[in-house]
Design goal:
About 45% of the residues lie in helices and about 5% in strands. With about 150 residues, the protein is mainly alpha-helical.
Length: about 150
């Protein structure tokens, strides 16, 4: 599952994408509209700024904005920056690979093979969706008998 920090980052970036080209957006607006604690949001936006995705200006008329066009930022990029990897297990990570403890040799492990496939399909999907793409909210699930 995505960490709370990654979910906050996605929501903040979606907010900035919605306001792209309209000038700086104040931190308080993002925090209020996206229900993100101010202190946490400051840390997230600073991290995204160091990665070149967000720019900022201090002062009364300051705020934050996307440093790149929303069409140039994919959800895959954003999740990798915040999470470090799209892989569900360390042995399937492309950029943060680690051998799993208490496992089979990697060349013999079918679970690793499965997780490599999951990673690749997830990357293909998330790298194909950009911040500029319209994503409409979906109604909540009504069937609570199965967690899908």
């Amino acid at each position: 599952m995505l960490s709370q920090k990654t979910r906050y980052a996605i929501r903040a970036m979606q907010h900035l994408a919605d306001r792209f080209g309209q000038g700086p957006v104040q931190l308080s607006e993002i925090a209020e509209k996206q229900n993100i604690p101010d202190r946490f949001l400051t840390v997230i936006l600073s991290e995204l700024g160091r990665q070149g995705l967000v720019a900022s200006q201090r002062g009364r008329d300051g705020g934050y904005w996307l440093a790149l066009s929303p069409i140039d930022i994919t959800y895959g990029d954003l999740i990798r920056i915040m999470r470090g990897s799209l892989a569900l297990v360390p042995c399937a990570s492309r950029y943060a690979h680690e051998k799993c403890k208490n496992c089979l040799e990697e060349g013999e492990c079918r679970t690793r093979a499965l997780m490599l496939e999951v990673r690749d399909r997830t990357a293909e999907l998330l790298d194909g969706i950009r911040l500029s793409d319209r994503i409409d909210p979906v109604p909540p699930f009504t069937d609570h008998s199965i967690d899908k």
